[in-house]
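Support request, please re-run this one:
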Amino acid sequence: MNPKRPSNHIPVLVISLIVLVGGFALSFLYDLAINQALYDPFNGFAIFMEAFGWLPVYSLPIAFCILIATRPDVSPPKQVGSLVALMMMSIILGVMSQRYLAGHVELLFPYWYLFPLTNLVLYLIARANTQRIDPYRNRLIKVTFAATVFIAVSLVIIHVVKTIWMRSRFDDMLLLENFATFTPWYLPFGNGGTSFPSGHTANVTMLLSFIFFTDVFPRLRKYRPLIYGSVSVYVALMAASRIIIGRHFLSDVLAAAFIVLAIFLIFKNTSWYRRTVIEGAVR
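Re-run finished. Output below.
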């Protein structure tokens, strides 16, 4: 049986390039002006997206840890190691989310511990339903592992670009009442900062990794347009929220989305992906 190769992504790439060129042309002229016109630090939607909107993509690494930790033929040390990784990741995500929210509103109580608690409950549910999961486990592990690698690679590249560009954030300049440190998107080695590209926008663009499920489960292939469409809308909402709250410029969010999209298109067409995910799923 010959595994079906990944679908052609040329239409996605063409549309994305059109949006990229148009968006960067707009930001070339009005990057700072757009932020000045839209800035609203008390916008509830933008605050919610900053604290929670970036989290959904981490459901895939979480699922990978749970699948390994509950796999019957995995040695106890590996199961324990996966469970420890799950708890550590949950704590980090919870602490980061709480820190973002606490920067805007006064918290009635700390909630970071709800993240490891929730994932521990999910682990126990998965352990209790091992026999139901087992027929799909190998394929699910392949998908979630590939997604975890894709997310890790994307995060590294995004943070390397941030380090090189060193672009000042809009709200930081506003706080100092000094926009002299503003630099256009096409100039790296700025005046210090992590504005370019947007980490939050990058995180939601990584939701494209849900496309991996359609390469492993043929019945899901009909949902590819829905996944692409849903992720595109979500990316647009996150991008708008980052501009409104003053943490990023239009060029920051555009760059983040298209860097991750480029990584996705390259990653999905590597021999490693075809060998590990697609071909491995039919063995």
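The mean pLDDT is 93. The two ends are 9 Å apart (CA to CA).
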